[in-house]
Amino acid sequence: MARLASKSRKHRQRWFGVALVFLAFIAFSTGCAASSKADRVLPVAEQGIIDLRGWSWNDGGVVPLNGKWKFDWLLASNGANGRFQYEETTLEVPGTWGNLMTGKGTKLDDQGYGVYRLSVLHEKQRDMIAIRLPNISTAYELSIDGNVVLARGQVSEGAERTIPYQLPATVYFTADNTRTELELIVANYDHRHGGIRTAIILGNADQVQRLQTRQEAQELIILGCLIMIGFYHLGLYILRRKEVANIMFAMLCLFVGMRMGLIGEGFIVQWLEFLNWNTATCLEYIAFVMSGWAGFAYFQAMYPREIKRMWFKVSTVVAAVLIVVVLVFQPLHFTSWIIAFQSYIILFSLKVLAGLIVSAHRRREGAWLALIGFAGLVLTIVNDMLFYNGWFTSVDLVPFGLLFLIVMNSFIISLRFSVTYEKAENMSAELIELNNTLEERIAERTEELQRSYATLADAKTELERVEHSRAQLVSNISHDLRTPITLLKGYLEALRDNVISEPAQRDKTIKLMSAKVEGLNSLIQDLFELSVLEARKVELALEDIPLIGWKERLTEQYAIELQGKEIEFDCLISGETSALARIKIDVRRMDRVFANLIYNAVRYTPAGGRIRITMRSESRNESVEVLVTDNGSGIDPDDLPFLFDRFFRKDKTRQQSSAGSGLGLAIAKEIVELHGGRIDAYNSTDGGSVFRIVLPASANDFPSS
């Protein structure tokens, strides 16, 4: 399965590479075609005259009327006779007023009134000639040889009578003479930029008509693609509401399409004739802001780990503020604040780029495709900002950038569908395999259930034993506390009532009471220590000591004392390699273990008996075994299972004088287990009892051969 999945991924990557090469080839071919057109030497206007007499319309095609036009700039009106005062000069075309200076060095304002004049020298033309006019800010009137042939909006020297309107247009006329005079009056009091932003094109009627058709078709195709893809993702969101990214991508496509329909060829303005220029401009800026907001929201929904939701909230607030500005202020004002709108788009675009770079580094699904597509879109956004600010002569490319992003997004969708289908195929194969082995799995599961039932039965038995032990524990504690307390109470009452009046007898009684109190103290201390050990709240002070050193310590502690009790004691190490072994133990707590074991052995070993400690290391299990043996009376076989329980005593009479608290062996067991070892007991075949302790040896005791 893994091999097939790997082959499938490689197959997808190969086809993706082919697709990218294909797109690059198209872009390269388009660039070559454009460069071949650009290699032509085009005529340029000088001092208001452009000479086209040597230009071949059939070979050279259309001509942009670029260069220096004659230009009359309205300075002020003469109050005495009501006439207006103009500065007669030249001006570069294309270019916006605020970024240009006249031939006389005058810096122009973007709001004002100007008259462009150009004399076109050409051969007599049998066919009609056409002029293609772009969007000119924001009202203009074109005259050819003194006749007004086209007007957009209403031009006037004053702002009050000027009515803005922007749409490209084509004018057709005959050129019977060899000189054609063009006069273009432009007025702008409503937009941040006035003047002619892009080139005016001149050519024969067929050429200009083809140019216009090509531009309109290109814009309609892209607009149609944006609308269709927008509604497609809207449908995806309706079918699956959890995928918020779909509605955001739909809004991105629709708002970019809306802005595209309001500028350029202005299809929406032509379609909705009731839209005036002010309303269309407001809608254009709102669509600009909303497309940025929707794009950021789309990528935030796609990559929420890399682009935090906090940034989406910030983006929403800023977008809302910008839209309120558009709705409240006049176009002249909010278009002059274009830097705020562009900064919003640029800043959040950079945030998306950073998030996509991190996503690609983390190998998120489709992140590289999204990064490539969005990088292309950002480049077109920068191009359009330079173009609309008048800093760069170009065309509106954002729709093309978005179309490129859509292509990348389609690759992401295809990739996801492919991965989904692959997972479905793998799951289908696993289901088939599961069905084929179902009987075996059922048998295995039945066996597991039977083992579980057995475990539950054992647990039930253990719980019953624990409950019995608990009841026994309570009974034992009550007995072991009540007996000395009753005795102490009796002694105290006897002392109080002067039943014991002789000084010697009183001293003896007080000593007995002191012994009982010490016994109670010892019992309480043992109970506390046992509870702490069982809760595993003890931190061991482990020391790495040699086995021979431990042997000497035990010999020193017990040899002399046991000899005084007429009991033979020895501690030895068995085996040649055992003498070199080391062990990690808490020495103080292990002393407590051996004190319990040895004094228990002393209790049941008569004078003349023997107690022996034998130590040996086992290389196979990497452990150390310690045996404490005696030749006393041994342990009742019925008592062996309960030997390490709390309050268990071999002495069934439970007289305090004949046995300890019954907690010593339980404490010893907890200490040994806390060391990672185990302890058990059995009777020797030679008589007497054997307590066996197995502890893990130090890691460096058994080097590999």
What distance separates the N and C termini? 42 Å
* Radius of gyration from the alpha-carbon trace, in angstroms: 50 Å
Broad shape: rod-shaped
- The total strand number stands at 21
Number of domains: 5
Strand content: 15-25%
Explain what this protein looks like in three dimensions:
The chain folds into 5 domains: 1-28; 49-199, Galactose-binding domain-like (Jelly Rolls); 213-421; 464-534, Helix Hairpins (Orthogonal Bundle); 543-701, Histidine kinase-like ATPase, C-terminal domain (Heat Shock Protein 90, 2-Layer Sandwich). Helix content is 53%, strand content 17%. The chain contains 16 helices and 21 strands. Residues 1-7, 24-38 and 652-659 have low confidence and may be disordered.
Topology:
Blueprint (H helix, E strand, L loop, with lengths): L1 H37 L10 E3 L5 H4 L2 E2 L2 E11 L6 E10 L1 E2 L15 E10 L7 E5 L2 E2 L1 E6 L2 E6 L16 E5 L5 E10 L6 E2 L4 E4 H35 L4 H19 L4 H5 L5 H26 L6 H20 L2 H6 L1 H24 L5 H22 L9 H39 L1 H59 L6 H32 L8 E4 H18 L3 E6 L8 E4 L1 H17 L6 E9 L4 E8 L33 H11 L3 E6 L5 E8 L9
Parallel strand pairs: 1-6, 16-18
Antiparallel strand pairs: 2-14, 3-4, 3-6, 5-13, 6-12, 7-11, 7-14, 8-13, 9-10, 9-12, 15-17, 18-19, 19-21, 20-21
Helix pairs in contact: 3-4, 3-11, 4-6, 6-7, 6-9, 7-9, 9-10, 10-11, 12-13, 13-16, 15-16
